[in-house]
């Protein structure tokens, strides 16, 4: 197999690695650099569990090769808050019970995070629309929409 | 005792970890020297393995082994044990961990490849030479029951493995005397599991101790341990099974799977830790589903539309094996007569083998099927007699003053069913009221001006919850004053780490942040059954209550000794035992725990066992019956058949709510699962038994954009059958949801449309019905 060298930024840190051309970004993040917060639910680009932010935009890490991330700025769920200090969005998820098993959650968080950076006051419908690329079998989505609205409001208040 | 936390909508203790990417799901476990397994699976629905040649695969890079069942003989052999034996099943109908001779569904595991990486293992799969002779296929249950059908198992003389019967009263007399009799046939399809985390297993032999450790994405880790121990001829004590964070279960993960055994066997055979992570396509092929049931039913009612009796039969597709015995069809049968006080019923279910992946319970487990047919029969009566649908139900319900109500039905174990508590008519009135049924015709008229069809639907259900025999718990106060709750009940997102902690915190008067719940690890708690059948709040919750009270009594006893006070003068609050009215006279729980932890030569108070800890096993020998009603509005575009659920209202009684935030989450998720079954989820197979919908492009799950906001109203009738008054909440959202949505679609299509007797209902189907109506 042909290995290629890549240089990228992951959660603000420079990462240099040798990767096989066929390695996808999700597997790279999870296996090569141990960031297991990004989950893999379908490996065919529908469930959104693997969503990360690449150069400011949400991307499906299962549909992107690690070599395509060469030179990119990648952000994963690990870049948000910590258990002791959750981000506003994570806090809103907790307050609204927007996660049950937590498997879809990192992808949900990164999708909404990317939305809130460009749209500070999304409507319920807009949020539901943006989330149409993220499946959740547990929550029925309503609490996730509520949490996104709360987080948008909290961010508006603090900015 | 304080109830600071019981009933409060406290945020979950497990969240900070899961929200920051710090969960540990099976795929996050990495062990030194671990190999990766992939399975070679049958590509035909029924066939005989003629030969398997792994030699080309073995010479590929990174490949460590290719195993077939014969390679495991020194560790274990033969078919898998059945999880739930049933007297009608003379011998278990299960597959081997790897197929030996005959394969009976597309996706049945035949061999496994072990490699340094999963990618290399997958590369090698294609190089295994497999020769399979095709055998005739049973591609659905109606075909399987027909005369002259091929056999799903070539050795069996019939595809019908059992006929279950449930009856009560003199059904013939009731039908003969009834004012009206109506018959309908129903085709029900429920689809698969689709937890967002697929299944996964890691097995690690411990070379020094000879023990075997297994981490599995399971709802039943202790069942995996028990059956695996038997299969391997080992003692349970030498096998550790843990369910780490599990990304959703919904029923199918309660099954003990061939892959769990095969991975364990492979780890023993190669001496390395082995990991297998199911991919989504395998999930479509090899994770159990709930598929088709065909019902032919007749209902009898009096002149006023009161339901009196139901009779008929069902053909149930059980798939290629019966790993879970007859639990699924038996649960469907045990769900009659639902919320209705029937003078008689007589039902039978033919359980049929097909060459499709086995079926086992999916959220609701046969109860949504029973609810669908009963609710459609109620709607039939309303339609034929021109009565309001609510009125037929009100006249037919078991009434509050009849509680406890003996239905005449039998539980899966044959014991009589007695509903414990509740007011079914009240739940229905609540949703009728909250959805503003009175103002509906006005809304319908408004929608008509926009060219849209609006429909209103109702459905009700009763649900047996808290299935026995037990789910135990231990509660321990550490010398640091922290409380550790341990239980065998596995969690797949239900928030047990919070609800069980709430119960313990109240009993011991400690802050919730001081309580940790450890679950589903056989080294931490010795016994467990399964997180199924909406049973954990009732069973484990009650056990935590019992154990925590014992700990409390023990703490008070020791404190009385230390404070030289009478036990009756003491209370437990704020992590201390103190004298009532004299808060300065107190002793912290941490001190008591330290005293009971013992120091060399220092006696502990006489008559008290060491360790500030206790174990509780609530004997759950009587079910708690939850119930509820749902109402929804749908809006249909008659040109495209596009169906939007615009409003959804739920009234639900699951007894005392431990945590409303969590209960509401269970209900909303459950309703959405039901909406998926009503409108989207369809696992299709062709006549050769080949799955046609094995991606999320072909198999549609409910998504955020299509789902409504769901309004929930609780009725809290405490169950008298457990110390915390709880009833299960995990499936009540799902059970009536399909019936509710279909009732609304029927209402939207109007009285001239055909009566809807099937689901899921696609937009094409709706357009077809509209066209038929217009003709
Ligand atoms: S895993 Fe990437 S979209 Fe599902
Ligand atoms: S929380 Fe389980 S899939 Fe979304």
UniProtKB/TrEMBL annotation, chain A:
CDD domains: fer2. InterPro entries: 2Fe-2S-bd (IPR002888), 2Fe-2S-bd_dom_sf (IPR036884), 2Fe-2S_ferredoxin-like_sf (IPR036010), 2Fe-2S_ferredoxin-type (IPR001041), 2Fe2S_fd_BS (IPR006058), Beta-grasp_dom_sf (IPR012675), Diverse_Oxidoreductases (IPR051452). The keyword tRNA-binding does not apply. Residues 4-80 form the 2Fe-2S ferredoxin-type domain. The keyword Metal-binding applies. Keywords: 2Fe-2S, Iron, Iron-sulfur, Metal-binding, Oxidoreductase. It comes from the Bacteria. GO terms for molecular function: 2 iron, 2 sulfur cluster binding; metal ion binding; oxidoreductase activity. It holds the Pfam family Fer2_2. This is Carbon-monoxide dehydrogenase small subunit. It comes from Bradyrhizobium sacchari.
TrEMBL record, chain B:
Residues 20-136 form the Aldehyde oxidase/xanthine dehydrogenase a/b hammerhead domain. Its cofactor is Mo-molybdopterin cytosine dinucleotide. Keywords: Molybdenum, Oxidoreductase. SMART domains: Ald_Xan_dh_C. The keyword Oxidoreductase applies. InterPro entries: Ald_Oxase/Xan_DH_a/b, Ald_Oxase/Xan_DH_a/b_sf, Ald_Oxase/xanthine_DH-like, AldOxase/xan_DH_MoCoBD1, AldOxase/xan_DH_MoCoBD2, AldOxase/xan_DH_Mopterin-bd_sf. GO terms for molecular function: iron ion binding; oxidoreductase activity. This is Carbon-monoxide dehydrogenase large subunit. It comes from Bradyrhizobium sacchari. The lineage of its organism: Bacteria, Pseudomonadati, Pseudomonadota, Alphaproteobacteria, Hyphomicrobiales.
């Amino acid at each position: 197999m042909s290995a290629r060298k890549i240089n990228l930024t992951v959660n603000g840190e420079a990462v240099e690695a040798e990767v096989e051309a066929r390695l996808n970004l999700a597997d790279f993040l999870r296996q090569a650099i141990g960031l297991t917060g990004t989950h893999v639910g379908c490996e065919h680009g529908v469930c959104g569990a693997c969503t990360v932010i690449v150069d400011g935009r949400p991307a499906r890490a299962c549909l992107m090769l690690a070599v395509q991330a060469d030179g990119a700025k990648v952000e994963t769920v690990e870049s948000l808050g910590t258990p002791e200090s959750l981000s506003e969005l994570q806090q809103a998820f907790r307050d609204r019970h927007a996660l049950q098993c937590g498997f879809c959650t990192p992808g949900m968080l990164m999708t909404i995070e990317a939305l809130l950076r460009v749209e500070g006051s999304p409507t319920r419908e807009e949020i539901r629309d943006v989330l149409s690329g993220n499946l959740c079998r547990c929550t029925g989505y309503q609490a996730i929409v509520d949490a996104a609205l709360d987080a948008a409001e909290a961010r508006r208040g603090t900015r | 005792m304080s109830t600071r936390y019981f009933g409060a909508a406290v945020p979950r203790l497990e969240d900070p970890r899961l929200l920051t990417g710090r969960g540990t799901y099976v795929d996050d476990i990495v062990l030194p020297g671990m190999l990766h397994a992939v399975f070679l699976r049958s590509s035909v629905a029924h066939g005989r393995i003629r030969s398997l040649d792994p030699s080309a695969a073995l010479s590929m890079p990174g490949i460590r082994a290719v195993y077939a069942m014969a390679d495991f003989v020194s560790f274990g052999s033969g078919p898998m044990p059945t999880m739930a034996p049933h007297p009608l099943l003379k011998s278990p109908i299960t597959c081997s961990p790897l197929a030996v001779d005959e394969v009976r569904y597309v996706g049945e595991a035949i061999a496994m490849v072990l490699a340094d990486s999963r990618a290399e293992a997958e590369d090698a799969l294609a190089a295994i030479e497999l020769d399979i002779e095709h055998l005739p296929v049973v591609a659905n249950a109606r075909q399987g029951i027909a005369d002259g059908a091929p056999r799903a198992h070539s050795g069996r003389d019939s595809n019908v493995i059992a006929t279950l019967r449930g009856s009560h009263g003199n059904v013939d007399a009731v039908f003969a005397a009834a004012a009206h009799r109506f018959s309908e046939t129903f085709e029900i399809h429920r689809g698969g599991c689709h937890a967002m985390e697929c299944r996964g297993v890691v097995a690690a032999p411990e070379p020094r101790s000879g023990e075997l450790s297994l981490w599995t994405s399971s709802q039943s880790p202790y069942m995996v341990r028990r059956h695996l121990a038997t299969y391997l001829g080992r003692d349970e004590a030498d096998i550790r099974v843990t369910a780490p964070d599990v990304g959703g279960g919904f029923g199918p993960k309660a099954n003990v799977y061939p892959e769990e055994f095969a991975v364990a066997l492979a780890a023993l055979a190669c001496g390395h830790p082995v990991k297998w992570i199911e991919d989504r396509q395998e999930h479509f092929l090899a994770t159990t589903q709930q598929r088709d049931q065909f019902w032919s039913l007749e209902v009898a009612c009096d002149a006023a539309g009161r339901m009196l009796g139901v009779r008929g039969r069902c053909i149930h597709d059980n798939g290629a094996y019966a790993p879970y015995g007859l639990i699924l069809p038996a649960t469907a049968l045990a769900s009659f007569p639902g919320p209705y006080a029937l003078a008689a019923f007589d039902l039978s279910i033919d359980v049929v083998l097909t060459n499709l992946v086995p079926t086992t319970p999916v959220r609701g487990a046969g109860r949504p099927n029973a609810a669908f047919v009963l609710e459609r029969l109620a709607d039939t009566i309303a339609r034929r007699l021109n009565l309001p649908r609510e009125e037929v139900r009100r006249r037919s319900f078991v009434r509050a003053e009849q509680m406890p109500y003996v239905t005449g039905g039998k539980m899966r174990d044959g014991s009589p069913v007695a509903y414990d508590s509740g007011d079914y008519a009240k739940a229905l009135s609540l949703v009728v009221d909250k959805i503003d049924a009175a103002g509906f015709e006005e809304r319908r008229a408004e929608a008509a001006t926009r060219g849209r069809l609006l429909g209103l639907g109702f459905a009700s259900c009763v649900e047996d919850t808290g299935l026995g025999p037990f789910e135990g718990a231990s509660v321990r106060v550490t010398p640091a004053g922290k409380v550790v709750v341990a239980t065998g009940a596995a969690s797949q997102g239900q928030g047990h780490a919070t609800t069980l902690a709430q119960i313990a915190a109240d009993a011991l008067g400690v802050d919730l942040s001081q309580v940790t719940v450890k679950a589903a690890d056989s080294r931490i708690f010795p016994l467990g059954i399964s997180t199924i059948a909406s049973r954990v709040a009732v069973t484990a919750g009650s056990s935590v209550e019992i154990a925590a009270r014992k700990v409390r009594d023990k703490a008070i006893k020791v404190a009385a000794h230390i404070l030289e006070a009478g036990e009756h003068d003491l209370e437990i609050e704020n992590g201390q035992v103190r004298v009532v009215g004299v808060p300065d006279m107190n002793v912290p729980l941490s001190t008591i725990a330290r005293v009971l932890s013992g120091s060399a030569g220092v006696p502990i108070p006489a008559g008290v066992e060491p360790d500030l800890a206790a174990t509780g096993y609530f004997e759950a020998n009587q079910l708690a019956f939850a119930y509820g009603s749902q109402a929804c509005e749908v809006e249909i575009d008659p040109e495209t058949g596009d169906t939007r659920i615009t409003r959804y209202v739920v009234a639900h009684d699951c007894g005392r709510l431990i945590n409303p935030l969590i209960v509401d989450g269970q209900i909303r998720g459950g309703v959405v699962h039901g909406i998926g079954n009503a409108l989207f989820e369809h696992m299709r197979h062709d006549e050769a038994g080949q799955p046609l919908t094995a991606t999320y492009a072909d198999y549609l799950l409910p998504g955020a954009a299509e789902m409504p906001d769901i309004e929930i109203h609780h009725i809290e009738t405490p169950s008298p059958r457990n110390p915390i008054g709880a009833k299960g909440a995990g499936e009540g959202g799902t059970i009536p949801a399909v019936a509710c949505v279909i009732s609304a679609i029927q209402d939207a299509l109007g009285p001239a449309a055909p009566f809807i007797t099937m689901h899921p209902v696609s937009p094409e189907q709706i357009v077809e019905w509209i066209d038929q109506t217009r003709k």
